[in-house]
Every structure is written in structure tokens, then in C-alpha cells.
Amino acid sequence: MLPNLLHAYIGAEEVGDETHYTYNDVWTSFAKDALGSVFLWAAIALAVILIAVGVFVRFKKQESFGRFVKTAIALAVGFAVTVIVTMLALEFYDIYENGYVFDMVLWPTVAFGIVLVASVAAAYVCSLFSQKTFKVSLIVCGSLCAAAFIALIVCLAIYYGSGDAAGNNLSDPSTVKDLALYLSTAGVIVVVALLTVFFGKGEKKGFDTRSIAYAAICIAMSFALSYIRIVPMPQGGSITLASLLPLMIYSYMFGVRKGVFAGFIYGILQAVQDPWILHPAQFLLDYPVAFAAIGLTGMFRRVKAFEKLPQVSFALGAIVAGVLRFVSHVFSGVFAFSEYAGGDNPWLYSLGYNAFVFADIAIVIVVGVLLLSSRAFLKEMNRYSAAPAAQGKPANGTKETSKDLSEGTESPLPENPEKK
Questions:
Q1: What is the count of structural domains for the chain?
Q2: Which residue of 114, 245, 261, 382 has the fewest C-beta atoms within 10 A of its own C-beta?
Q3: What three-state secondary structure class fits 149?
């Protein structure tokens, strides 16, 4: 720690009776890097321990495996919350330490996060009373979240117009191509929306207690894992320890409609973690739209040809989702950050820089395929899934029951998802 302090030392000045020492970005950067490494190894150790114990329980006491899965999820969520609180606190201190003029984006984003978390909690509490109360709470909470998001976009526009966005990113606003950004953003949104509608046919509409609870868990776990970076990129983005896997599994379990929505929310939270924001349309491309595309991972699960090949349907969906995320980032790089290319072709620069997306997705596919190769994992996933596989049968060929967490009763999965 002492060499870091000495290296970052700039000088000192007398202010009244006190001496103020000036350091250049010292403790927050050091703490983030150090804790990032600690959390990386802690996550690996936790995963290895849980997998080993899970395998032992599965073969020695199979009837207890369901209870073990719930305990494992609770431990993972606890770890995720610890990582999120710690790293977000350091991120805010880092912003304060560097003196970024970021209030017009930071606090509206934080407010949106608070409204979102409070809405999820309120919806869950209301679900304990009656179905009508639950539906009313969804409408009210959804309206509040939509209003908070619109307010965030308005603040982003003001932030961009003030010139602070260019100053914080050390860029020339004249290099930003506004029309191309808006058109490319609209184009990616249309593609994601069309794929969601097409592959989301027959899925259960609306959210219930179970899908909301699992969305919150998966978003939190992905957000925590996104802080565990294997290779951080200099202008935003990183190769992580399968950070998108929980979101992709959620899409595979509950369908692309809910998956795209969860990815959209996750993308907004990413703007707090890694705030490279230069333009409102660039914000949409790099954050909510790019990660909403990740929610398309479950698009091939209901395809009959892959009924007994869940690994293939997951991998193909992940590839499509990764390509759409890559395209979204490339458009942002070309039309918003072309200045960073120097004298090089901005398209080649953006294609090369954002190629990290494929390495990140490749890690997720490997881990996801390994999980889906486990009959025990498939059994538990199909038990809690609200989106049955093709023809309403689990991919391992066994019939399962779906437990409604809000009612606490069991009912058989429908034989045909098109007919209820």
C-alpha cells in the first residue's frame, strides 16, 4: 500500500491550521482492483464448493437435493449482495474522488434503481394478499418505474447538452454522429423487439411472484459477477467470470419476453457500474438495449428439433444474443466514440475493440452447456420454470411439476404450451 501512496502523491497545501495532502486517484482504484481479485477467487471457491457438495448430495441423498439448491441460491445471493454493496460504494467514492460532474446521470440512475427495488418488494408483498391486489401493484409499480426511466432519459439529454458528457470522457462532441446514432439505436431495438415477439409466442404473459423473484435474483447475481473481471477494457466493457449466465438461464427458464425485460433492467444498472456515457442514444446502445438482447438466449428452447438437446438450443440462443450485443456496441463505437480510433478506420477500431464480447459469451456458453448437461440441474430448472421446453416436456425426457411459489401448490406442466 505504501508504494501506491508514494507513487500517487502530488503535493500538499496549507489550509488554515491544517495540511491537505493531494493524491492522484489512490485508494479507490487500489481498493477496487484489490477487492476485485479477492471477489474473483472467492467466487471461484464458492462455486467449486457448492458444486462438489451438490454432487455429493445428489448421489448420496437425492431427496435432499431440492433443499440444497435453495440453500445454494441463498448463499449465492448473499455473496452477490456483498459484492454489489462493496463495489458500488467504491465506485461512488471513485467518482467523487475524480471530481466528475456526473450528478445529472448518477443520481437519477440511483433513483431508478431504488424505485425498481422498492417496486419488486411491493409487488411481492401484494402477491401475498390476492391476485387482484398483485395485478394492481404491478400496474402501479410498472408506471412508477416507467416514469423514473423517462426522467433518467431526460436527465441524460440535459447532461449531454451541458457539455459535461464530453468533458468527462475527454472527447470532442463534434465527432458524435447524432442522426446515425439515433437510426442505429432504433434499428437494433426493432430487431430485438421482432425476435422477442416471434420467439415469445405461446409464452405465459405477464409476471407472477415466481418470475419476479427469480428476475431479481438473476439480475443481482449477474450484476455481482460483472464486478469480477478477468480482462477489463480501457474504455468500458470487460471479460468477466460468466457474469451474464444468470440472466441467460433466466431467459431459458421463463422465456424471451421476460428475459429481454430483465436484461433491459440489468443494462441500466450497468450504467452505474461502468459509466461511459456521451450521448442519450449511445447510452441506450451500450447499456439497456445491448443487454436486453441477452434476454433472447432462450429463443430456441421451444424449438422441437432441440427438444432433447438443451445444450445446443442454449448455445445457439447465446450466440444470437451475443452477436446482437456486439452489433449494438459496434454502432456505439463508430458513431459516438470514433475519436478514440485516432487516425484508424472507426469501423475497424470498433469491431476490434468490441470483440471482447465474444470471449465473454464463450465463457458463458461453456459454463451453461456444462450445467445443462446435468440431469439434476435440468430437473430442478424444469421444476421451477414457467416456460416448459418443446411440447411441454423437460429436455431430459422426464415429467416434472411446476411449483407456484405464490400459492404453494403443485400442478403438472401443460402438455402443449400453445393450449392451456
A1: 3
A2: 114
A3: helix
Cα torsion at 138, 143, 157, 170 (round to 10°)? -20
- Same-domain status, 62 and 107: no
pLDDT of residue 13: 63
pLDDT tens readout for residues 103-126: 666 777 778 878 888 888 888 888
Do 214 and 357 sit in the same domain of this protein?
Answer: yes
Same-domain status, 228 and 279: yes
Q: Is 1 exposed, middle or buried (0-12, 13-18, 19+ CB in 10 A)?
A: exposed
**Strand 229-232 to strand 409-412: parallel, antiparallel, or no bridges (unpaired)?**
unpaired
Rounded Cα distance, 271 and 156, in Å: 11
pLDDT in tens, 289-305: 999 999 999 999 888 88
Residue 52 contacts residue 236 (beta carbons within 8 Å): no
Q: What is the number of other CB atoms lying within 10 angstroms of the CB of residue 198?
A: 10
CA-to-CA dists, residue 166 to 171, 289, 298, angstroms? 5, 22, 38
Domain boundary among 99, 120, 155: 99
Q: Which three cell numbers mark 103?
A: 450528478
The boundaries of the domain holding residue 160 are 100-168
Residues 76 and 201 in one domain: no
> Judging by beta carbons within 10 Å of its beta carbon (0-12, 13-18, 19+), is residue 378 exposed, middle or buried?
buried
